[in-house]
Design brief:
heterodimer, A: 115 residues, alpha+beta, Folate-binding fold, four-stranded antiparallel sheet, two-stranded antiparallel ribbon, 3 helices, 27% strand, B: 415 residues, alpha/beta, FAD/NAD(P)-binding domain, D-Amino Acid Oxidase, Chain A, domain 2, 2 domains, eight-stranded mixed sheet, 30% helix, globular
Chain lengths: 115, 415
């Protein structure tokens, strides 16, 4: 079972206490966006066999949304952080690079910034 | 190909089974093929088989990174049904179910197709309405289903506890033509038939790159060297996205884990497939007597091919409620498979931005039942460079154009 630390209440929460919410840091598109941009917003998702940055909700706890950097293959958790930020914080990227230099996450994150 | 028959079986029984040949060849890859299929699971092998059978193309290699049928083909709960909601889905799943009926004769391999009937339970008011809607839709589509009452359910399957404590059974969708088949035999049968047509089934051969020239595919690099081809089909379920990335495009797919388990064998008591979507559990009894049990998917992206205790508990508590008599059964094995989910829970059988490169993926939690129909449609697409009627609704463009085949109701939970 996954255990994730909620960055708000500092509890180690079991998977059963949490709800997964899909890829994090996706920017909502407005009605004046192009079809391609809106399609990306709705359907384009990273699906790495590696580090994935995703939203979780502490549903049966404090109820807050937070963000987790987790490896989808080994289930290793690199960081959990509060959801009030637009991009993956540099400290988290550095922490991932320190343990998983070839993860490609930094490049993927930079690729998304221009959207 | 050595034909299998009762006479052959008797002959071999009398001479100590010394005369059986290897069922399929294990050749080294040639440098060039007309067609390469990546993925020797059910869908990949069926694609190759129908390339040969329907289109007389035999210069084909099927590349597999692990062993034959070791992915989701060997990890599912073997349920076959065609009672979906929308016309597009019903067309391909019903084609598939019909091909399953004649598969054993076609492949000269007993795939143990058993159309024992599928019972999908309605355990709340909303589900009653959903299943009635599907029954109405199926009636119009010519699929044999009906919505039945609790007393009829008890006649068909007396061991179900109709007045369960949490979710009493209020009705069910009865699909008498649905059933199960032996999953390994399907993969083996196709591999044997492909091999007999002169195709190469190459195991232990992982694709590491996709070769292109002027955005046209020319071959693949693999752990066993470069192999060239004219046309390439990616049929690799949860790993299709990774291969698409190598080719330089993205697919709207997320991979999650779906798990299943089997109990110790017991005497026959369950001769239908029972699905209960509200409580997330579905079960059938194998010919050996084991209960084959499936549950829901994990809600998060996952590539580790194992399950989690939470889902075992969830599936088991649902089943014990439906069948109180199984509460003391022991569980023998449990495993997870990586399924490729699309946003509308329907597959992708499509051309791609790279010329002569095709994908067949996104079957999510319901791939096994679709194996022959999927192979049929994918072979047609690859040969004509244009989809036939079966594949046309499932192209990649449907996401940007809003032409979804939304099967979340019929397929989002259980198979």
């Amino acid at each position: 079972m996954l255990r994730l630390k909620c960055p708000y209440c500092q509890l180690d929460a079991d998977e059963t206490e949490l709800s997964p919410g899909g890829e994090a840091h996706i920017r909502r598109r407005a009605v004046d966006s192009t079809d391609a941009e809106f399609t990306d917003y709705l359907f384009r998702r990273r699906n790495p066999q590696d580090v994935h940055v995703e939203r979780w909700r502490h549903s049966f706890g404090c109820g807050k949304w937070f963000i987790v950097a987790r490896c989808t293959l080994t289930q290793e958790v690199f960081a959990t952080y509060k959801a009030q930020c637009e991009h993956v914080p540099k400290s988290v990227l550095d922490a991932i690079d320190a343990r998983r230099s070839g993860s490609g996450l930094r490049k993927a994150v930079q690729g998304r910034k221009n959207q | 190909m050595q034909r299998y028959s009762s006479i052959r079986l008797l002959r071999e029984a009398l001479r100590g089974h010394s005369g059986w040949e290897q069922a399929w060849n294990t050749p080294d890859p040639r440098p060039q093929y007309d067609y390469i299929i990546i993925g020797a699971g059910g869908h990949g092998l069926a694609t190759a088989y129908y390339l040969g059978k329907n289109h007389a193309i035999s210069n084909v290699a099927i590349l597999e990174k692990g062993w034959l049928g070791g992915g989701n083909t060997g990890r599912n709960t073997t349920i076959i049904r065609s009672n979906y909601l929308h016309d597009e889905s019903v067309a391909i799943y019903e084609k598939s179910r019909q091909l399953y009926e004649s598969m054993s004769e076609d492949l000269n391999m007993n795939v143990m197709f058993s159309p024992r009937g599928v019972l999908t339970l309605a355990q709340n008011h909303h589900e009653v309405h959903c299943l009635m809607r599907i029954a109405g839709s199926n009636f119009r589509q010519g699929i044999d289903t009906e919505f039945i009452t609790p007393s009829r359910i008890s006649e068909i399957c007396p061991s179900i506890c109709i007045d369960g404590p949490r979710y009493p059974v209020r009705g069910a969708l009865w699909h008498p033509q649905g059933g199960t088949a032996r999953h390994d035999a399907v993969a083996w049968g196709y591999a044997r038939a492909c091999s007999a047509m002169g195709m190469h089934v190459i195991e232990d051969c992982e694709v590491t790159g996709i070769l292109q020239s002027e955005s046209r595919v020319t071959g693949v690099t693999t752990t066993r060297g470069a192999i060239h081809c004219n046309k390439l089909g990616i049929v690799a379920a949860g790993y299709t996205g990774k291969l698409a990335e190598m080719a330089g495009f993205e697919l709207p797919i997320e991979s999650v884990s779906l798990q299943a388990l089997v109990s110790e064998p017991v005497k026959p008591f369950l001769d239908v497939v029972v699905m209960a979507n509200t409580v997330h559990g579905y079960v059938s009894q194998s010919d050996k007597g084991e209960l084959v049990i499936g549950g829901g998917t994990d809600g998060y992206n996952n590539f580790s091919q194992r399950g989690s205790f939470t889902h075992i508990e969830e599936s088991i508590s649902a089943l014990v409620e439906m069948f109180p008599m199984i509460s003391r059964l022991r569980i023998l094995r449990q495993w997870g498979g990586i399924v490729d989910m699309t946003a509308d829970r329907s597959p992708i059988i499509s051309k791609t931005p790279v010329k002569n490169l095709y994908v067949d993926c996104g079957w999510g939690t319901g791939g096994f039942k679709a194996i022959p129909g999927s192979g049929w449609a994918m072979a047609e697409l690859m040969v004509n460079d244009a989809p036939g009627l079966l594949a046309a609704p499932f192209d990649l463009q449907r996401f940007s154009q809003g032409r979804f085949v939304d099967e979340r109701v019929a397929a989002g939970v259980a198979h």
